[in-house]
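Field reference: sequence -> structure
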Amino acid sequence: MVVRLPGGAAFVDALRQQTKLGAVLLSSDRLDRLADAFVSASPEDWDEMREALGRYDLKPEDWRELLRGEVGFAVALEPRAEREPLVVGLGWLDAGEDVSRRLLAALQAVVAEQADEPHALVRDDLQIAGLDVTHLAGPILTTETPKIDFTPGPSGELSEDEIQQRITEHQKRLQEAPREETDRMHFFLARQQGRLLWGMTFPQSSNKVRAMRKAGDESIDWDEVTGLEAATAMFGRFLSGQNGASTGRVAGLLATPGVGEQLPAGKTLIEIVGDPRPLVKLADLDSTGQAQRAIESLGLGALGPLALRTSLDGSVLRSAVVLSAPAPRSGVVALLDQDTLTPDPPAWVPASANEYQEISFDLAKAYTSLKQLAGQQGGQRGSQAFDQIETVAKLFTGADLTALLASLGRQFSIVSFPTKSGAQTADDSAAQAASTVRLGIVVPVNDEQIWERLLDHFAGSGAGGLHAVEEQGFNGYRMSAGGQDLGIFLGTSRLVIGIGPGVSESLLSVLRTPPEAGAALRTSGVVERARSLMPLEKCLSYSLAGDSSGADLRQALLSLLDQLTSPVHLASSPPRYRAQSAAGDAADPEAAAIFNKLKELLPTDGELEGAVGVSVDQTIVTEQGLLIRSALELPSP
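Structure field:
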């Protein structure tokens, strides 16, 4: 797998020059004020950082150079006889001649300073592919965890004091237990014309080392066990292949029919290319044949390369995910072969909806496939779980689960409605924001009686607080939990689910009386604008969204910052930015001040108005595989 960012600075420049959103969010003035906000919040920390970096001829401003050129990382597998393949990571960074030289010198200096420390990295200078390479070997130390002894004494029981004493003794043994080397990691670093290149192995040999020691073999050849020779050879091939982006293996994967040509053009933000076939090949190491049978049942053997790319094409942000899965498909992969949809919203969808999504999927077919797979892989035990589920479903509905799922149509409509005015403010917490979700789901039903029996059962049992209602000609059930409204209705051969305040009423109203021309999504101009972004083909799913208001965009940015200040996020941050207590009742005042400054730096509703236009995405299955593509209109400044 290869992850590549061809040029962060170039993408940001294009976003700033070609789109209003980039011009507003990423203006030089706003970025300068953003940097000043971090520095002014903790000048002592920045002074300490500058001093620490200065000892190695580095400075905080160097980070900008790290984003100017290409950055990438790849994971490769090297086959080994009678062992799992050696996993090697390979990375590159176009930092420029000056910064790359200083970064490599700084790393070498840090290693030299710690050379006398216990279990320090061991440096070895090599020549590979005509380049000077720094090789570092680092030990992986583990502790054999002693088991806690809760064996009862002569009385046959342990008192609380004795239990606590055993725990204390166990903790002492754990602290005193010696650490031993059970694996090694290898690191390679080189520099080529301003490009930093590195490679690394991953810990894979602990089990083998323990087995060798258990067999009495203490003469461990660490280089052989940890695959140094193979890793060095792979890094050498990597160095020899430095002829620019997407060469060699990646270019071959992108040349697979139906893969590379489906990826968007433009200024690329990120590209990911992977090949699942080496992983599938690992099944050959399973002597029982069970892994190979599972792959055949799942249909994974026919899968080819996977690719993702996000690019700015003029003033349109495009993304595509492509998976090579040529027809004919089998196993679970065959579930891709569903009835297709025509991207044309139903007449009842109102233009006031934030987003409309339609999905084609046969739940009964999927359930049958999964049940067959469970039986093939798990035998009787694998089938028992499905038998139990079917027994419960039949008890509730009087029909088997396959019939219940088959009673649903294959077309699922999902509508997102705007947040109610006044339902949320900028100071709302993430939990409060989640409670304002307003979502509707509409599914065709060809047997309403099955679902009536199911819902009657739950309403009659009082489960979940459901109570029966009749509204606008639909029979249904309502409940309220955690401040969120839920309505489930049956009528006109549809199952209708409304989540959030006022959603059920809105859905039932438009289903009974579709909006007039102009007030419906299909006649609002959104579909035509979506077609101008990309061709709308028959597909498994599609979604359409109209223009985002400046207020909605600003609220989304505020919500993101609120999440960053939440106790969950702060718990993984440096101590200065953590919550004051384990309960997370309040964030550190200094951290809160920083994030409040960030909020003040956000553009106003007016500045963001008209910055994001129509968006569209589609999931398409072709003879060559799966394609998920999207386009977001970002109007020019």
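Note: Residues 422-435, 567-587 have pLDDT under 50 and may be disordered.
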